[in-house]
Amino acid sequence: MKKIFTSLCAVVLLGSGMAQAMGPDIVNGSATNNFTMLSPANSTIGGSTDVTFTWDGTYRTTVVTDGTWNATLASPTPFFGFAWTAHHVNIYAPGTYVFNAGCAAGNASCGTGPNLALTVPAGKVGVHMLFDWNTSSNIDVVLLWDMNKSWAQNGTSSPFFTGTGSATTATVWNGVSLDVDADGFAGAKMVDGPFGLSPATAYSANFNVNGIAAATTPVAAPADLVPSNLATAVAPNAATSIAVTFSEAMDVASVQSAFTVDAGVNICTGIVASNSDKTFTCTHNALALSTIHIATISTGAKSAKGIPLASAVTWSFTTHFANDVVAPIISGALTPVNGAVNTLNTQPIAITFSEPMAGSTATAMTVAANGVAVTGVFQASNSNQTFTFVPTAGVLPNSSTIVVTVPAAGAVADGAGNPLAASPAWSFTTEVPASLVASGATLSVTGGNMVSTEPLSAASAQSTAAGFGKSPPSGVTFNNGFVKYKVNGVASGGAATIRIVFPRTITGKAFYKFKQSTGDYILLTVGGGPNQYLEVNATTIDLNVVDGGSLDDDGAANTIIVDPVGDADVVVGATASTLGVSGGGGGCAVDPSGKDASLLVALLASLGYVGWRRRRS
């Protein structure tokens, strides 16, 4: 890139007492990223801790020559008294790139000037940018970022600029600068401008940022091809689905150009994107009978982030010898059978049809528990003949009547568009566990000894509450009952951590406790402090119960904790405003006699409590 050079006297005077340099602009808008400038002798001569970085999420796979960019860099901090800017910043996917330093801005591949070579291995990210400083312009800089590591892990002995920021050599960055040119220093020595007059006097710029991720290559698994590879007797009708689903969102135009289905000629009249640009369907007229069709998506298809397929996706199928006018029927028994009772909540829901079905079949079928929709998906297998329901929670609700609806008209149809002949009657009930432990939960303790566990029914808890003129909170039901645990050996006035591992996903839910001494159901608070709880993972919580603390019914510092614990489900019509405290009062019982101690934790299977806790991504 053509340069206008300023005097070099300022460069040779770089020192720790000089002004800090500007840095890049970060994707989450936080100006806390790091810039470290290294001297030819591998010493830190300046930098900045107010670096920001923005990126549109795409990657380049060839050297940019059209003047475009996909990232920006900015900082308010001058460098040696002069403002500088970064422009034409581009993020590169794995590959090998050569940048020419003698080109006009925006074309790094004109073939003139010194070269900067950059090899980006798999799992890493490359960067090329241009800097303007003082009266010098278009100074080339390349970077190689490793993912989610600290400066101390970048494989060099180069020092790190800390400035006035809080980052240290142990701070982990989404992108940490590596040695690009194998000279043992972090970064790459500049080849032009006042910072790169000769290899012996060249400086290297390093940026360490958050808000960047390594590129992933899109794939299409065999199960994501419709019809399945080598399928036979495929309906030759115009309604037959020919589709592919990728592992991530794709660039629509590139897939539309790369997707063909060959039966002597390309039979696709169009390629339609759906499923957030992950699924692509070939639209077509009636297919030829008894004919092999070869579907291909070439490597011209790329992800929405700009990464092409590693290899072409190809599969084939053979059409039936006659037009399909026969409606599909249900083949074999439903699982579970209609009318089954007390089935395990882990029991798969599955249905098999007499022939391959259209992809719309999966979304047309529904599952409800006690009249409330159960979130999940029907997954196809067996060449689209068998569909199995996978609940989002991992299991079905206990103590529920499950109704599976399979419509006999419309979307539940075979590949030829023939709808299901008759809708089945299909319902069953799930078991009612005797207690939370019976439902599959486990309890353990740190800071004491788990003496015993015993069941406590939801009816018993409700009866206790009724004795105080109180009732459970509206909008929830305690389907799994409770378990009463007893812990001793707690230090007087100390804390015990009760860990509960549930047999189902609990991320994003809320928790309650029940006070047997007052009949109150109380919403617990989230936190790592005394008398709070923390979510350990998607199935586990830790309760921090303090002897004599706010969760202690008698308020005394004793050495024994006896509490019931259980989980709850939301019922039809419940809202966040109705799922609060029933009654009033304080905390968990810690009673040496075991008479009044009572902690009830209620897991609410609801998606609407963001006001209380944010669901993890």
From TrEMBL:
Keywords: Signal. Residues 1-21 form the signal peptide. Residues 225-319, 325-430 form the SbsA Ig-like domain. Pfam families: Big_5. InterPro entries: Choice_anch_U_dom, Cu-Rt/internalin_Ig-like, SbsA_Ig. NCBIfam families: choice_anch_U, JDVT-CTERM. This is SbsA Ig-like domain-containing protein.
